[in-house]
Design goal:
Chain lengths: 388, 200
């Protein structure tokens, strides 16, 4: 039996009961915060000052900062989307497995290029990079999964910068997930060169004037909630911080954003975002890409150079809404669906790559290697009932 | 002009094969159409298309429920790995000397062998000079829609023959069917009824 269901039964009941209690507490809080959002909607300068003061006390502060639109703004989409080039990128990786026959890593980047309205057949690009030799040991020990993930993000961004360079504007580049790679800066020095490459790729995109965005589906962020909690503190209403845990921005905006509408644009305040300076400064807005009966929300991260150009923001909003509509009952931008599909490395692919490496090592005179004893035993199929 | 392959072989036995080809309404062979598979030794295998299968996946299922653009449709047809699977029943073969046999093929073609549509000249070459002996295998094969297949095949052959040849071949064809099904009156009536819709 893989799981002790008897042990779980009581815990699941408790979980349900706890969720109901938390839900009722959050609904009261949501009402309060929602009123606050409306009351202070146009108080942008004062709110910016509140954030600045809070930041002087706590440099780990992570919250939204209003920019120029009222907090409760809901801006409709302007369809159809303008003619443009869309490049979307996604990546997947094989992390080195010390129990496998050979030690290697692999990063696979998939890029999808579509020109809405052109009638042209979209293009696919795949870039695969093997991690071997010294790259497997960048510092003490084998390369970490975090570092491989960073290298994957760098390659995605570099591929987008490279491919968008030759395209007529406007060019929109999309990636799955936020533009901000880490909430907290990585202290390990081995990360820094790659992170700098990521920032350079962003600068290239800024130089080209590419409309760059990171798309976070069903976001769990509480950045605006954290902003509003600062107002609470400012008003000397001592809110127990633990009380707001579980209250998300999505809860605040879900009832405010009609299909196609976006929220105000906010600047992202975090320790991690401090690396994104000048035109790379990170911002975000919430967007409903769904339909009347089927809302679907996303948090869209964009850099300063896009925020500075309202027509680019408008085009991005329209493109995301239009492309997500192709997702049918699960609205999600079609170019991101396809980029993921192109990038994903399946088990069969992994086995094939492993076999190719094994053959090459044999050709080079190495003895055949085998999986670790642990892996050999894990490969056994489970016990089966004898069929009579 | 060099013929363009419509697909490549996925799997085969001596009775028939399944081939995969890209989704295109202009190059996809029709039900009942004659195709050929040239082998390396000069042998050509002939067959009739008896099933065309278009697979789906999760994304396609989502897309059918929404208004999609022409680029998205083309992307799914041209880029995504959703090939058409076409089942072919073999009707005979031709040796390197050009001699045609309406019998079971000696060896099946190999995976990834190319498959071509037959032009009028090839169809005439395969069907002329012999009584249509392959009808026996078609009508005895319970895994194919024999009545509809034979009817569609007759229609194609008549369309590529001149009037005199067509009349002679049609009579041979009908005589062969009657001889084969003389003890199976329901199926004989079934096939004659179907054939009457394509014979003027």
């Amino acid at each position: 039996m893989p799981v002790n269901y008897l042990h779980l039964k009581d815990q699941i009941i408790r979980m349900g009961e706890q969720a109901r209690v938390q839900e009722s507490g959050l609904s009261v809080l949501l009402q309060r915060f929602s009123s606050l959002l409306d009351e202070r909607a146009s108080d942008l300068i004062a709110l910016q000052q509140i954030v600045d003061e809070a930041l002087s006390r706590n440099n780990n502060l992570r919250c939204a900062v209003p920019v120029s639109e009222p907090l409760n703004a809901h801006i409709p989409v302007s369809l159809p989307a303008p003619a443009c080039q869309i490049l979307s990128a996604d990546g997947s990786q094989i992390n080195p497995d010390p129990h496998d026959t050979v030690l290697y890593g692999l990063i696979n980047i998939g890029i999808f290029h579509i020109e809405p309205g052109s009638g042209r057949i979209p293009a696919e690009h795949v870039r695969s990079s093997l991690i071997f030799g010294d790259d497997l040991y960048p510092a003490d020990g084998t390369i970490s999964e975090d570092l491989i993930a960073l290298r994957r993000d760098v390659l995605e961004r570099q591929a987008l910068a490279e491919l968008s360079a030759g395209l007529p504007s406007p060019v929109i580049t999309l990636t799955d997930g936020p533009l901000e790679l880490y909430h907290e800066p990585r202290q390990d020095q081995v990360f820094r060169p790659y992170f700098n490459q990521y920032l350079h790729a962003l600068e290239d995109l800024a130089f080209q004037g590419t409309i760059t965005a990171g798309y976070v589906s069903r976001p769990r962020a509480d950045l605006v909630v954290q902003l509003l909690s600062l107002i609470h503190q400012e008003q000397s209403i001592k809110e127990d911080q633990s009380d707001i845990h579980g209250l998300t921005d999505l809860a605040l905006f879900a009832s405010r954003l009609a299909p196609g509408e976006r929220s105000a644009i906010f600047r992202l305040q975090s320790r991690g975002s401090a690396d994104y300076t000048n035109r790379k400064m990170l911002h975000f807005f919430y967007l409903n890409v769904g339909f009347d009966h089927l809302p679907a929300f996303a948090r869209v991260e964009i850099p300063q150079w896009v925020v500075e150009n309202p027509s680019q923001v408008q085009a991005l909003q329209a493109v995301l809404v239009e492309q997500a509509s192709f997702g049918g009952s699960a609205p999600y931008p079609y170019p991101l669906i396809r980029a993921h599909e192109i990038a994903v490395v399946k088990m069969d692919d992994r086995q094939q790559v492993t076999t190719l490496i094994e053959k090459e090592l044999l050709r080079q005179g190495f003895s055949p290697s085998r999986q670790s004893e642990k892996q050999v035993h894990k490969n056994y199929s489970g016990r089966k009932r004898l069929i009579r | 002009m060099t013929a363009i392959a419509i697909g490549r072989l996925l799997r085969a036995n001596t009775t028939g094969c399944v081939m995969g080809c890209r989704l295109s309404q202009t190059t996809t062979p029709a039900f009942g159409e004659m195709v050929r598979i040239p082998l390396d030794d000069g042998t050509k295998i002939y067959g009739l298309v008896h099933e065309i299968f278009i697979d789906d996946d999760g994304l396609v299922r989502q897309l059918v429920s929404s208004e999609v653009s022409s680029e998205v449709i083309e992307d799914n047809r041209q880029n995504r790995n959703v090939p058409i699977e076409i089942s072919v029943v073999f009707v005979g073969w031709e040796n390197a000397s050009g001699q045609v046999f309406h019998t079971r093929i000696p060896t099946p073609p190999l995976a990834l062998d190319e498959i071509f549509r037959c032009d009028g000249r090839e169809i005439q070459h395969f069907t002329s000079g012999n009584r249509p002996g392959y009808l026996r295998a078609l009508l005895r094969n319970e895994e194919i829609p024999a009545v509809d297949l034979v009817t569609a095949h007759l229609k194609q052959v008549l369309s590529v023959s001149n009037a005199a040849d067509a009349a002679e071949w049609r009579d041979q064809f009908l005589n062969e069917i009657i001889a084969l099904l003389k003890d199976d009156y329901p199926q004989l009536m079934d096939i004659l009824t179907a054939i009457s819709t394509v014979i003027e």
